[in-house]
Every structure is written in structure tokens, then in C-alpha cells.
Amino acid sequence: MKKILSYALILGVVFTLAVVGAVGPMNSQVQAAGNNKVDVFIIFNQTPGPSEQSLVKKAGGVVKYSYHLVPAISASVPESAIKGFLKNPRVTNIELDGTVYAIDAELDNTWGVKRIGSETVHSSGNTGDGVKVAIIDSGIDYTHPDLDANYISGYDFVNGDSDPMDDNGHGTHVSGTVAAEDNDTGVVGAAPEADLYGLKVLSSSGSGSWSDIIAALQWAVDNGIQVTNNSYGAGSDPGSAVKAAFDNSAAAGVLHVAAAGNSGTPPGKGDNVGYPARYDSVIAVAATDKSDKRASFSSTGPAVELAAPGVSINSTRLGGGYVEFNGTSMASPHVAGTAALIIAAGVNNASEVRQILADTAIDLGAIGRDSLYGYGLVSAAAAIAAITPPLPPDPAVNVDLSTDKTNYESGVDATAVLTAAITDENGNAISGLSSSDFATMVNGTTTVISFTETAILGIYTGSLEISGLADGAHTVETVVTDTRDLSGSDSASFTTGPAPTEATVASVESITYITSGGKNSDKHLSTAVSIVDDLGNPVANASVSITLNHDSGTSWNGAGTTGTNGITTFNLSNAPSGCYETMVTNVTAEGLTWSGSTPANGFCK
User: Does residue 329 carry a catalytic annotation?
Assistant: First the structure.
């Protein structure tokens, strides 16, 4: 019975079209309709292969796509051959291939991305970097300066080639809302470093076929796409093949986001969400204005899951520049971009991403989920804030202990410099400690350093007071305990003994910069290098060689001799603006060995 009903539906559509254009006897028109070809999905009981394709061709059909995402072939077949297909035990159903349209975008400041809090997420370092987002639409103008760096590849299913250049403008506008680059010009997308893939299914007129959309979904699965944006649709149910394509690709891990449609009534009555947004495997997105009110055109119904800005949305324009559009087509990419941010934050399961979007939405309208706003306005800021970061591995603690003298005089208080670098698995250092937080174990006495989960990245240097130690070797151990019960430790050694009576080592004590001359007294730059011995005395007549590096990549070499104050000065006339750093390359002083190190230094003008 199911096969018969499907065939009757096709005959009814073809017959109606024939009668509307009838100019002769009705019987001849029916006969003519029977000889016409119709675009259909032939659904099989298994994934179609060469034998199924041959079946279609032998019946006079032309295969457009043979899918593996769904067990179907998209083909143009003689209407008279349909009865034969339905009698084949391998064929379970035949459905018409319908037409979809870009959901209207009408010409009307980038407020939408700001409203959902994406800028807050970007400032924390999350830009959706590397997340694969496919724009299933009219293509992408990948030459646009706000899109060119993020565009990766795609496919043109309308023209059958690998160049999905936009020739309508709809897909380019949608792409900008998802991932326009943060390049100090134009607009910024919700996920400005996401990877964009253009899957062109809509022609220059803004229309396309469901058969191309199924092929695009199959491409998305085969190419590891994580999020799709679908700002197109149709009002009537396209059938089981299209639904299965969305369901199966979602089951494969692709998160589908779609425009709910622009068929709403001003009072917000009725169930008018279009397809594919109406499917359970797709997030249906309604449109809001700057006052967080539903746009009067936004479709309503129980399928609406989220709302997003969709009025006066400024985004990238085909051929360059920017343009404002209205529509749920403009709302949907705000959600797709937010999904990319969530994935970039470490949530890789599409179902979990969808749940986070729902749980963190800002409730609008009636309390709870409703048919106008769904769960509410999507919030990138709240979504990312709600994600609990994974616990880091045990921190590795590196301790470097150095002293102001090679030996301590017995029983005399002294100060050592302790540098502790607490690093994660990627080698990033974690600190955020004050000098009072440093704790050590000296000769068996232990205290503990504690730091919080919000500790900033970096390396912290503190001071350790050591008093009255006996002559000999000593060990200082640093133990670090995290509030998450993770810990690590390391140690360093030093010796104490009689105070030295004779200097043996020369070292660079300091490097300072002085400017002079010119209108702003900063035309020329002088670099003063101070040399001392290990007793703290200035070293005179020491030969010093340096390299002065500029942030432009230019460098200058110099050599000089210290005076009685242990200082030698290097002068650079007409020093260009920028930042400088000095590296001491050699120190030669009679009776002394150079320590070989240069203290941290720098100067900008």
C-alpha cells in the first residue's frame, strides 16, 4: 500500500501540472505526462551500488547521485517507468525531489555578535580556531578580505565542480556572521578563526534541490565537518530520504543548525517552521531584534529551539564590502558560530554542544521553552562560561636556586634567589604567586606552596631567606600543591663555607639605557653595561662586547672598555623608534672568568 500511495502522489503532481498547461484533449495530455521525466529519489533496501544504478539506467533514467549516507539514488526517470520500479523487491519507496529556497534576506551595524557575547569569548583566546563549519548555501565569496583566510574548500553541487564561488550573495552574508576575520576592518564573526567550507546547493536565483542537499550532507560527513549552517528551506515535507540524510549525518557527529523560516505571523500564532529546521536532528533558530523581541516575520512552532539576532545584521557582501540583511537566515549563523566556540573549548560531542546551547540560552518570552524563542537567546558568553575545563595533569615544578655569592660565610645570614616554574603538559608555565607564597624544605624542614585554578601563566621569582647554615652542601626543595590535589616538586643545591677573600668571577650586573638629543630628547640611544666581580666590586679595564638588537630585526655590534666605575657605554646615533634588547657576547678581565650570562633587559622609544 505504501508503494502505491507514493506512486499516486507522483502521478497527481505530474497530472496537475499537465492539466494546468492543457491545450488539447485530456487523454493526450495524460499520455504526454507519462512520457515526461520526473526527478525522484528511488529508495532501496540497501546501499545502492552498480546493479541499482544499472536498474535506473535500463529504465531510461539518468542517475544524478548514488548515495551512501541514505540508501537512495537521485535520478531523473520516465514517469512511465515508476510502476516498474515499485514492483522491484529492492525498491522500498519513491519520492519526488523538491525545490528549496534561500530563506528571504531583505536589505535593511554589527550588533548581533556583540549581543550574544562572542567578543567576551574572543578576549579569552577562544576564536573557534580550526573548527570545521560548512555553509550549505549559495556558496562563499572566498576572495572577500574578511573571509579569505578562513575559507578552506568545498564543492559546487549546482554546477558539479570543486569551486563553490557564490553567485547570489546569500551564502557570503551567512559566512561572515559565522566566521568573518578579526582583522581590524569590516565585521567580526561569532567564531572569527573557524574553518569555512562552502557547499553550494543554491543557484544564482537562490533556489536548489533536495538531491543536492543530501549530497552536501554526505560530503560533510565524509570530510569531517563538525557544524553545518542551513539558511534555506521549504514549507512542505520533502519525504523520508531527506529526513534520513539529516538524521544519519547528525548520528555521525555533525551538528546541524537551520533557519526556522520567515513565515511567521505578526502575533506569533501557528506552527509554520519550515524544513529542514523542523526535523528533530536539526536546531531550528528564530530571529530577534535589538530589543530581544521576536522579529514579526520569524516562524513559530514547537520545533523552534533557539533564538538569535536576525534584524539589521551587517555582514560580508558578495564582491566585497558589507550589507545589512534581515531574516532567520541571519539568525542561524550566530548559533552555528557559537557552536564552533563550544567545540573549540573542548566539547567534541555534537549532542553535548546542543545541550549546552539550550542550557545556557537567555530565556525570553514565556518561562521555559516556547514556540516563539525556543529555550531563548543563544549566549556564547554563557555557553563558554558553563564549560568545566578538564583537569590538567600533575604540574611539573622546575626550581632554579642561585645566590648572590658563590659561598656563604659560616653563620652569617644570606639571601638566595628562588625561581619556580610550574608547567603543564604543553610546557606552559603557571604561577600567580607572591613572594610570601614560596615555601621550601631546607635541611628537612618542609612547607608548601599553594596556588589556585585561576593562576595566570608565567614564571614567578621570589626570595628565600637562609640563616646561619653550617659549612657544606645544602639542598632546597620546592613542593607545589594545587587546589585540585595535584602536586609536584623539584630541588636545587648550593654550598656554604668561608667567605671568599679573592675575586674569581666577572659578571654583568646591569644594563641601562639613556636617550638624548632631538626635539623629544630621544634621538640618540646610549647603552651602559656594568661589570662587577663576585665580591661585588666594580671591574675596571674589562673588555666588553655586545650585540644591540632592534625589533625590526636589525642589530648593531659594539666593543668597549670599562672605567674605574666598572661601566662602559655604547652609543647609537639616530636610533630608530622601536624596542631594543642588549646581549653581552664576551667579557674579558684580567684574573677573572666571565660568568657568561646577560641579565634581562630592554628598552622602547
Answer: yes
